[in-house]
Amino acid sequence: MRALGIDPGTVATGYGIVDYKTNKLSFIASGTIKTSWSSPLPLRLQTIHNKVLELIDQYHPQIMVVEDTFVGKNFKAALKLGQARGVALLAAQERNLSLFEYSPTAIKLAVTGYGAARKEQVQIMVSRLLSFQEEFSSQHASDALAAAICHLHSDRLQRLVQPGTDQSGF
Questions:
Q1: Any long-range contacts for 48-54 (C-beta under 8 Å, 24+ apart)?
Q2: Strand ranges (DSSP E) for 44-150?
Q3: Tell me, what's the pLDDT at 136?
Q4: Does the predicted model carry a pTM greater than 0.85?
Q5: In the CATH scheme, what architecture does the domain 2-161 have?
Q6: What are the per-10-residue average pLDDT scores of the chain (170 residues)?
Q7: Is the dihedral of CA 138, 150, 13, 48 positive or negative?
Q8: DSSP assignment letter at 69
């Protein structure tokens, strides 16, 4: 199974693509979709949408995993983040991908074993899980990979504990 993870943002949206076959995770690609802070928001959203569609068309994932919006103290920033998530969700729908969403805490817990892990800890664990020796282009990219890994591990666990499901591992 191939998963496209998305860490949404209106200036920097991370993406990460991971394969899971025969109980092994494999790194495929990662990066950051960058937009200009000075560009109008609709143009930035269009750029994100178009790039996500390109990634889907190029790498052919079966699923998309998107980090859920974290609403902190800055409500306006959370709204913009939600808009970036929205265009990624639209791209998944347009390409008929199954879509899964996880909170930042759930992703950190699945990857590091600690729901309040720092970004550096997430990067280290993602590198180890994917046997990735290079540096990630950004924390957004490693967060997107973490989202994909979170779902692939969660999905495998669900298959193992649900009776009557295929337990061979995809």
A1: 48/8, 48/10, 48/13, 48/84, 48/87, 48/88, 49/87, 49/88, 49/90, 49/91, 51/13, 52/6, 52/13, 52/15, 52/87, 52/88, 52/91, 52/92, 53/91, 53/94, 53/95
A2: 63-67, 98-102
A3: 85
A4: yes
A5: 2-Layer Sandwich (3.30)
A6: 96 97 93 96 97 98 90 75 95 97 94 93 95 88 97 67 51
A7: positive
A8: P
